[in-house]
Amino acid sequence: EIGHIESHNERTKEKYASNPDVDMSRSHLNFHLVTPQRKYRAEAEKQIAEAGCRTRSDSVRVVEALVTASPEFFKGKKKGEIKAYFQEALDFMQKHQSKDTIISAVVHMDEKTPHMHLCFVPLTADGRLSAKEIVGNKKKLTQWQDRVKKYPDLERGESASETGRDHIPPRLFKEAVHLNRMKEQIMAILNDTNPFNKKVKLDELEALLGKYVPGAEALRTKLKKYDAAYKTLTAENAALEKQLGAASKESVLKKLEINEKLREL
Fold this sequence. Notes:
Blueprint lengths: L1 H8 L21 E4 L5 H12 L11 E5 L3 H4 L4 H18 L5 E7 L6 E6 L10 H5 L2 H9 L13 H4 L6 H22 L6 H27 L2 H17 L5 H16 L1
Helix pairs in contact: 8-9, 10-11
């Protein structure tokens, strides 16, 4: 996966069809807090060799951390304020992990919400390669998140370890958005077909359906795993419907967020 991670983080491709959120016209706004000196894999192998670590084929050579916040947090903030937020996150990470092992820390401004991808080689203080020891388990990661106090206007999200929820991954919502856009294109072609352009439109339709049908079937299969989570989301939405008479701004926003996710899926 290291090559795919680097390709996405460093924007080495001309377009990202699998991720409709990427707006390449805004990619020049992305910036690094740590700039990679060489390819991710090459840098990882260099550090591992210098540390004298033995590796197996399944050894974790690179760990990626994602730093973000809700879209509302970034609204109205200038680039300097956004940069300061991610710099604070980088400083926090460097308290837990040697800065020399950090390969790249890049902030993406060309997607819906600003976020930072931070990649490091999981070398311990005594020079061992052990992602398990550094990252730990879910409990340790939860503790890391609980320690962040710099921005009191950010509320800590509900921990899955406490709620017991099986969260639906954001990538599935992105796939749903992408498929729904394709469906809109298909409907537009059908509505715009007439005897004069029938041949051209049918060719366009065939090409789109060739991508849409297998994509929709694949998503359906993936979502079966999250059937319980989907039902929970639907139940939450129904409960919020009943509360809307005396609803707070927060519950209205929550309902809108859930509605949007349910609509896409």
